[in-house]
Amino acid sequence: MDENRADGGESSADDALAAAVDERVETYRERLFELLSQPSVSTTGEGMDVAADLVVDVLESSGLDAGRIETDRYPVVYAERGPGDEGRDGDGEEAIDGDDAPTVLFYGHYDVQPPGDVDAWESPAFEPTIRDGSIYARGAGDNKGQFAAHAFAVDALLAADAFPDATVKLLVEGGEESGSAGLREYLEGQPAELADVDLVYVADGPRHAVAGDDGVRRGVPTLMYGNRGVLSIQVDLRTANTDLHSGNFGGPVPSATNRLVEVLASMRADDGDGIAVDGFHDGTAITDADRELVARIPDDSEAIREELDVDRFVTDDPYYERLLTRPSMTVNGLSGGYQGEGMKTVLPATASAKLDFRLVPNQDPDAVFEAVSAHLREREPRIEVAKHGTFPPMKTPVDTPMAEPVREALGAVWGEDVIELPVLGGSLPAAYFREVEALADVPVLVVPYANHDQGNHSPNEHLDVDCFENGIRTSARVIRSLGRDA
Questions:
Q1: Which residue(s) pair with 135 in the sheet?
Q2: What pLDDT, in 10s, does the model give residues 78-88?
Q3: What is the CATH number of domain 229-284+327-391?
Q4: Cα(486)–Cα(480) distance, rounded to whole angstroms?
Q5: Pfam families annotated for this entry (predicted)?
Q6: Please, what is the angle between helix 403-414 and helix 465-485, to 10°?
Q7: What would the mean pLDDT of 46-67 be, rounded to a whole number?
Q8: Which homologous superfamily does the CATH classification assign to the domain defined by 8-227+393-485?
Q9: Are 174 and 42 in contact (CB under 8 A)?
Q10: Does the model's pTM come out above 0.70?
Q11: Are strands 167-173 and 103-109 parallel, antiparallel or unpaired?
């Protein structure tokens, strides 16, 4: 085939794919609404078993062969579609050699956070509603709308007769919001069905936002090469066997609240930003390529400061350099003493705090936990430290060839320059894929489709309709690009 005919063929396929999405988008919304209407709260177990079956149904209706994989926690749903698999009409094409067909594994999760305060929702959390161009429901962006986009991309490719010589696999877990125990169990079994994967593709989290000339931040197409890790802990301290009168005992008898604040503050470096814990930074590794990537991110820190009504940042260092290349410590909550109305002159005997540490590539969450625990107990022997959860950091080299088809797809669909980040500021279980021997060196890319203000984990979570539809188009183009490059 000559070059002109090849170009014409690509254009024709692109047009057919675009038309298929346009024609079927109402069906895709209806299927998404089915997923969103089904509660699937992994922290409580509400609706989880029914939700897993529903995910299977939605994936199968999109042309994938899907099924549940049981774990000791919640089911993992696995689905695939390969070249030559039978289509909806039952007419299959001749399959090419599986060793020659590239394979992309799309990861997502069907569990969601609890709704929280029901009165804070403008419409019920599990009654999806479209308002002002957005789909409002718990899980709309995190993560049902994003993982469903991959399945609907397969459906659109089949409808357009444009499914390439590639294999598409989906792995949708049911415990991301509560520690990914089921996913880890599945991956630790070294599943044979993942042995041929060439790219792990994660659509989760919000797109990066950039401030325009008007100072308003809006989402842009985003490609990330990993994610920060997280360690969550609880610290409890008892200094006496009962609360006491602060006048009769205050001074010589320690207050648990005072003492806990002092001990927590000891983990802060003198500059108020760094973390002064021996061994905390062991293994940290940020490459020059990562730093160059960060330096190219538009500086919209002033717009962020004004949007959040923050009087000043903790450091004068560049915003994204601080956010994406260094670990952080956050006291998520403090409790102790009297919390009622008015005053009570009490000397608290107990106090507690919840903290998280965001970790950069090559930090080991377990090693960080041991370092933090040793630091706290050395300064206060009566303190108790409990680990609540971890996700390891994960990083793919920024020069991976697999990034190019993703960049091209994002640029073509969104019509904008792609912003690239070395890591997602938040945390994902993506690093667990590296525990599969066959995936140890496979690129893992994070490509969020949700709007930057999606409100995941908050009341009125929402996914912009254009983000949902463009997510479908992006996944479809990535699949086609991988097939062409084989």
A1: 130, 463
A2: 999 998 776 43
A3: 3.30.70.360
A4: 10
A5: M20_dimer (PF07687), Peptidase_M20 (PF01546)
A6: 140
A7: 98
A8: Zn peptidases (3.40.630.10)
A9: yes
A10: yes
A11: parallel
